[in-house]
Design brief:
There is one protein chain. With 398 residues, the chain is α+β, with helices and mostly antiparallel strands. Among the domains are: 41 residues, no CATH class; 125 residues, Band 7 domain (Tetrahydropterin Synthase, Chain A). The chain has six helices and 21 strands. β16 and β17 form a beta hairpin. The protein is elongated, with a radius of gyration of 66 Å.
Length: 398
């Protein structure tokens, strides 16, 4: 006989000698007689966790956190704390649920969200080809296992090895494939590993492409390996499984060591020749540039000389025009002076003639024979004495 204390926030189960048990919720003081007390373990879950409760009858239930459950052995067989599935905006999960009639229902949970499955639900486990950590171009079957499927564009590297050309040259073609998931349900129904399907399709396309070309033709047509039209099987297969191939990038090729050495030597020679050609072209362009600048300088010099001559000619023409204008002005001034002089002489002559007429009129009034007077005036003088007498007026004595 003894006493046991169950504190507050504690629980316990008391078993008697018959194996019967009862639950004690603290705080409580318990007297034990032929009994055994067992404290219960507490299980708690945060807001990002949930509890998996398995009853004695095998029924499993999930309880979303935050919560606290005591492991009562009279009710529960086991209690487990599990983390909820955090899904961001670029991922989703595929959830399956078993119904009562043994049918299975499938649904898709798109992020962002915190997903807690029910007891009858489970997540789809994807198992795809994955990239080898030591060689990113090597894909390992089933290496990439995950439950959250990315719904953003992705890409992977892949080397198509042991590719033969028409002339039996063995090469390795290096590619980079960009793809985007478009139809999730089609992908789930048509394939279990879309990366493997794309790898097989791209290998078939590369082998078909190389089988139509010799090694030299392959080198000339490598740019076509970056065009989607060169990968018909890849695009068709991707469309059937719900993917869209955005582009394929040709990253180069690799041949065997001997051929690669020969190719490297040829590339070095071609590069040297190309550099020499570029240097010679630069020299020629420099020479042409000098000649063009010299021609431009000569042309500019001729234009300047012509401009100076035109300027001098223009000055001479302006000087001649100025001289002509001055001469014309002097001539016009002389004409004006001559006209004024002639007019003045005519006026003087007219005045003299008026005076002479007046004088002759007076002489005639005095009885002078004007005709004889004018004759004598204009007749040259002689030694003969000429007497001019006037007749006295009537009534006057001589």
């Amino acid at each position: 006989m003894k006493y046991k204390t169950v504190r507050e926030s504690q629980q316990a189960v008391v078993f008697n000698y018959l194996g019967e048990g009862r639950l004690i919720v603290g705080p409580e003081r318990v007297f034990l007689y032929r009994e055994r007390l067992q404290y219960l373990k507490s299980y708690t879950a945060t807001q990002y966790q949930f509890l998996v409760l398995k009853d004695k009858d095998g029924i499993v239930t999930h309880k979303r956190g935050p919560c606290e459950i005591f492991h009562n052995p009279l009710v529960y067989d086991s209690i487990t704390v599990k983390d909820a599935t955090k899904i961001d905006a670029n991922h989703l999960v595929v959830v399956y649920k078993r119904l009562k009639d043994n049918d299975v229902q499938r649904r898709i949970i798109q992020g962002p969200t915190v997903f807690v499955p029910e007891a009858e639900e489970w997540l789809h486990q994807f198992s795809w080809h994955g990239c080898d950590a030591s060689d990113k171009t090597r894909m390992i079957p089933g290496h990439n296992k995950f439950t959250q499927l990315a719904v953003i564009p992705e890409q992977f590297y892949y080397n198509v090895r042991d590719v033969r050309t028409v002339d039996d040259t063995m090469i390795t073609v290096k590619l980079m494939i960009f793809y985007d998931l478009k139809e999730i349900l089609k992908m789930l129904d048509k394939t279990h590993d879309p990366v493997a399907d794309m790898i097989n399709a791209v290998c078939a396309d590369v082998i078909t492409f190389s089988g139509k070309n010799t090694f030299e033709d392959f080198l000339k047509n490598t740019h076509k390996l970056s065009e989607l039209s060169s990968f018909p099987q890849l695009t068709q297969r991707a469309e059937k499984i719900g993917y869209d191939i955005q582009k394929v990038v040709f990253r180069g090729y690799h041949a065997n060591d001997r051929l690669q050495l020969m190719q490297s030597s040829a590339i070095e020679s071609r590069t040297q020749l190309r550099l020499n050609t570029e240097i010679e072209e630069m020299k020629q362009r420099l020479q042409n540039f000098k000649l063009s600048k010299e021609q431009a300088r000569t042309k500019l010099k001729h234009e300047m000389e012509k401009s100076e001559q035109d300027h001098k000619q223009m000055i001479d023409n302006m000087k001649q025009v100025h001289d002509l204008e001055i001469k014309q002005m002097e001539h016009e001034q002389a004409l004006k002076i001559a006209t004024l002089t002639t007019s003045s002489n005519l006026d003087d002559r007219r005045a003299r003639n008026r005076k002479e007429v007046e004088h002759l009129s007076k002489l005639r009034d005095l009885g002078v024979d004007v005709t004889l007077y004018l004759t004598l005036q204009h007749t040259p003088p002689s030694d003969e004495e000429i007497r001019v007498s006037t007749a006295p007026p009537s009534g006057t004595a001589l």
